[in-house]
Amino acid sequence: MTDWLTIGEAAEQTGLSAKQIRHYEARGLVRDAHRSDAGYRLYDCHQVQQLTLIRQARYLGFSLREIDALLQLWADPTRASKDVKALAERHRQAIRQRITELQQLEKTLSALEADCRGDDDPDCAILASLTDPEHRT
Amino acid sequence: MTDWLTIGEAAEQTGLSAKQIRHYEARGLVRDAHRSDAGYRLYDCHQVQQLTLIRQARYLGFSLREIDALLQLWADPTRASKDVKALAERHRQAIRQRITELQQLEKTLSALEADCRGDDDPDCAILASLTDPEHRT
DNA sequence: CCTTGACCTTACCCTTGTGGTAACCTTTAT
DNA sequence: ATAAAGGTTACCACAAGGGTAAGGTCAAGG
To answer: Per the database record, which ranges form the HTH merR-type domain (chains A, B) (predicted)?
Structure first.
């Protein structure tokens, strides 16, 4: 009487696409799903929960590799929550790092734009700067 | 007497890799390079300047598609600098948008982490939240 | 003259995380 | 019975390159 879901139903419940679910299985992120007689994948609520975790973690920007680690911890009843927290913290630091980089880019772009008159004249400080190997980054 | 550079020399001057330069040619971003009798690609200073533009623009996070547009403008003596500025501005807005998204992610992660005790106990608020399809994003 | 090493050439596979398509089979409803 | 909707695999594509192989070329030195 367990209610099995087809991949489409599981997709709808989790917010993933069926394609994504198959992909995660192919990547070994989740175990191969059960199959109906006709070969249809069937999911129980435990697997739906697992897929939900993937979906939410993807939304938060975790890579599939990181999610793999999260799933290992999730499946391990002897885990320490500090290990989960450490994973999250590392990811958060990566995000902060990326934000800093993007802010620097934005600053540089902003300065370039300020130097460009932005009129109908071909003379353009942005192009001039881009073609100048000034501070070789 | 024009001093032609081989691809390695052009790479060194621009900060690109030889691989990247070939890639840009294959993508049609730059015209096919001249060739020596032996088939070696040869670059003049105009092309080196063009490659420098690509390198700098890539550094600023422009996509190759955007750079294609920049190169069109660069090559066009009748360009209006406002068109260049508009390209830069659009890119800058995309960066700002991305920063906002990442900041939101960071905030969410931060909140999750705050709820996790991070000790040796398996009970973990982060995992609990991830497996909960609460606010289906 | 010939070798050695550094450089060049093409061509192919790998990455990340999907989307798209085709060709085909199953289930469900009419 | 038939058609729509949904499942299956397998393959191609993207961005923007990196890695490697198998081979051609160039300059220096013994």
So the answer is: 1-73
Residue A119: both structure tokens together: 């009129």
For A102, the enclosing helix (H) or strand (E) is helix A81-115
Q: Are strands A34-35 and A41-42 parallel, antiparallel or unpaired?
A: antiparallel
Q: How does pLDDT run along chain A (137 residues), one tens digit per residue?
A: 468 999 999 999 999 999 999 999 999 999 999 999 999 999 999 999 999 999 999 999 999 999 999 999 999 999 999 999 999 999 999 999 999 999 999 999 999 999 999 999 999 999 999 998 776 44
Q: Which of B57, B105, B131 sits opposite A95 (nearest CB)?
A: B105
Query: Does domain B1-79 bear CATH number 1.10.1660.10?
Result: yes
Q: How far apart are CA A20 and CA A12, in angstroms?
A: 12
Of residues A95, A96, A119, nearest to B80 (C-beta) = A119
Closest CA of chain B from A22, distance in Å: 19
Q: Are A53 and A74 in contact (CB under 8 A)?
A: yes
Minimal CA separation from B37 to chain A, in Å: 29
| Distance between the alpha carbon (CA) of A105 and the C1' atom of C3, Å | 50
Question: Which chain A residues are Cβ-neighbours of B113 within 8 angstroms?
Answer: 85, 88-89, 92
CA dist B120 and B52 (Å) reads 53
Residue found under tokens 């015209």: B31
CB contact under 8 A, B99 and A96: no
CB B74 within 8 A of CB A88: no
Comparing CA positions, the residue from B2, B82, B70, B130 lying closest to residue A81 is B130
Residue A58 amino acid letter = R
